[in-house]
């Protein structure tokens, strides 16, 4: 995927990064022309698959350029991912990449970067896009994804918000801030949402009281889609891309989005079955609607920040927002 946030580097800089991470003896030989390739499936960070001199395969992930403006929730995203990976490895059994080396000095390039081992597996999302899975296989993977997501949500925090802090004492305060920030991101760029910001604000304000029943901060990914899931031989072998994680309400997880928008995000039944979540209460439906509004606003506004060259995502997401706004007064039924 193409995005102006992808911070591509020259071969010379990549070699310098390898030397810093693994030592000069692991820098690929000068006559090796196939030592690096870009992993193109993704919208935000640039990622390279690299073969070290000893034959090991690793992935280098580089944060966006310092001069490129990102959305409020994306600031410091790579630092968030490093904290998230550490938390997951220490406090759950969910498989995530190990971090071989991380550099936040910005001496070799203008952004944070880190190396991790390459995971030899298939991307669940790509398998679905290419029609390589039967309905049974797809549902089995989604059930497993739901179970993995539930385990991640058992990680408790001491506040709501950023993993490394600072945070808010209540979920309502935290989510309200995030919603205000994303709307502000849109206003700053003059993004046409199809609705006045005040109209969206009035609709969401009517449901914020439903957030008060969430009292325990839990680790949530909110970006745990099938395309961030690596699978092999019928099993999930790794979960990738954790830069949006924070402490919040597990019901905000991506796998639940189909509850509100089944035509746009698919039937969530298998994910919910694997997660073990029961029928939603009236307040849970109101919370879920708020989280879908937030997600769709991000999807509309990020097209401007990432410099999309077509309006496909923008047009699609605006249509999803219309569906959500039309349901704003009946989401608890």
SSE layout and pairing:
Layout lengths: L10 H12 L13 E3 L7 E6 L5 E6 L14 H15 L9 E3 L9 E5 L4 E2 H6 L5 H18 L7 E2 L5 E2 L2 H19 L7 H9 L12 E3 L8 E4 L2 E5 L6 E3 L13 H4 L3 H7 L6 H24 L6 H15 L7
Antiparallel strand pairs: 1-2, 2-3, 3-5, 4-5, 6-10, 7-8, 9-12, 10-11
Helix pairs in contact: 4-8, 5-9, 9-10
List descriptors.
single chain, 333 residues, alpha+beta, Phosphorylase Kinase, domain 1, 2 domains, three-stranded antiparallel beta sheet, Aminoglycoside phosphotransferase, AGP_Transferase, Aminoglycoside_PTrfase
- Rg result: 20 Å
Give the integer mean of the pLDDT values: 95
CATH topology of the largest domain: Aminoglycoside 3'-phosphotransferase, Chain: A, domain 2
Specify the biggest β-sheet: 5 strands, antiparallel
What is the CATH homology-level superfamily of the largest domain? Aminoglycoside phosphotransferase (APH), C-terminal lobe
Gross morphology: globular
CATH class of the largest domain: Alpha Beta
What would you say the CATH architecture of the largest domain is?
Alpha-Beta Complex
Weakly predicted, low-confidence segments: none
Report on this model:
The mean pLDDT is 95. The chain folds into two domains: 11-117, Phosphorylase Kinase, domain 1 (2-Layer Sandwich), CATH 3.30.200; 122-326, Aminoglycoside phosphotransferase (APH), C-terminal lobe (Aminoglycoside 3'-phosphotransferase, Chain: A, domain 2). A five-stranded antiparallel beta sheet has the order 1-2-3-5-4, with no helix packed on it. The chain has a three-stranded antiparallel beta sheet with strand order 6-10-11. The longest helix is centred in the C-terminal third of the chain and has 24 residues, at 282-305. With 333 residues, the chain is of the alpha+beta class. The chain is built from ten helices and twelve strands. It starts with 10 loop residues before the first helix and ends in a 7-residue tail after the last helix. This is Aminoglycoside phosphotransferase.
